Amino acid sequence: MARAWGARLIEFQSVTKAFDDGTVAVNDLDLTVEAGTITVFVGPSGCGKTTSLRMVNRMVEPTSGRVLVDGRDVRSADPASLRRGIGYVIQHAGLFPHRTVLDNVATVPLLAGWTRRRARSRAAELLEVVGLPEEVGRRYPAQLSGGQQQRVGVARALAADPPVLLMDEPFSAVDPVVREGLQDELLRLQSELDKTVLFVTHDIDEAVRVGERVAVFATGGVLAQYSEPPELLARPANDFVADFVGRDRGYRGLSFVAGAALRPDEVETVTVGAPGVVSGDEWLLALDEDRRPRGWLRPRATVAGPLSEQELEPGGSLHTLGLPLRGALDAALSSPSGRGVVVDRDGRAVGVVTAHQVLELLSTERAAADSEPEGGR
């Protein structure tokens, strides 16, 4: 009896893919994707990242070398059976337009021999898991937004509970706000499901946000660097990686610097709806009755009647206390007052912080890290 494919690592062993016209898409790739992690392949167009991913489920065959899943060469498996055991999510979701959402999600379980009732029950469960209401299951793909379609695509890939999930630029076709929400959803799902995820993107910000390890590919299908995001941002392996990661990699690196030591300053506040407000020489932070930030009142402003939100300047982004310092710096830089608003987990204001404070704290923490003995790291 054939052994089931399990949640194990994916290995590329000296894998090369060359096409008939002589183009080398992947050049001698040696790489291990650890079980239960999200690994991201990132790089410019034509660098071989999607080709590498598609060799895992045999949609592309290597010219030489081996691709192993759970220690087994994928070429030893029937392609159809292999693909039913590996989830696959693509750009634009790739849903069947003539099937309802519920039947789209139930596709792979039905192919695997599940009863229709069991497959549809599993599909309904997964719609809830990916954050879609029950009634969406009765709709057709054309009736959904782009973000909803991508969530359905993820649900369909998870339907038969595969140990491996391949995601080929799954969120690139949606707007930035929806995209960030989908990234958060992926991270939440991974914390619960513990899949081995191989994720392809051309966006370095997305790569370092969702990836536990990131593989940067250079043109010609060469692996330029493979490391954890903080290491990638702090120590690019060569000029190509440094250029690809970008000159603002230090700012991106703040995403991995804990903000537990940040101590917000107090700020003078005013409540929306308060009558007869005079701001004096300082910006006033306007809060609602639950102490949630609503904006800033400019210096030397006089409001005779109740203070309304129309009289406020938008407040920029908010930083949640305890999260990485990138959010604190962004809050300070985006605030019209030059002071970023810091909130607790419930969104209530606890104080403000300046960019100077964030950079000072970063300098202090880096100095402390550099002074640690080698064994303490």
TrEMBL record:
InterPro entries: AAA+_ATPase (IPR003593), ABC_transporter-like_ATP-bd (IPR003439), ABC_transporter-like_CS (IPR017871), P-loop_NTPase (IPR027417). Keywords: ATP-binding, Nucleotide-binding, Transport. One of its GO terms (molecular function) is ATP binding. Pfam families: ABC_tran. It comes from the Bacteria. Residues 10-245 form the ABC transporter domain. PANTHER family: OSMOPROTECTANT IMPORT ATP-BINDING PROTEIN OSMV (PTHR43117). This is Osmoprotectant transport system ATP-binding protein. The lineage of its organism: Bacteria, Bacillati, Actinomycetota, Actinomycetes, Pseudonocardiales.
